[in-house]
Amino acid sequence: MSENPVSEMSFEEALRALEEIVTRLERGDVALDQSITLYERGAALKKHCEARLNAAQMRVEAIRLAEEGTPKGTEPFSA
What we know:
Layout: H1 11-27, H2 32-59, E1 61-65, E2 71-76
Antiparallel strand pairs: 1-2
């Protein structure tokens, strides 16, 4: 398992690390203290992934269409 600082991970790296942690915890063969450590790292990875997704979402632009249906320009994404 990668022990890189979470803040330096790409979204994909963090997601892979989070999936690995979930798999290890679901197996149930990890000692209690290690489970707690894994859970805490998983929580940090989840938070990091959510922040990266939110930042990406804010950068997405929606195409605006004129009344006749032709592209008119772009506008910031709004959910």
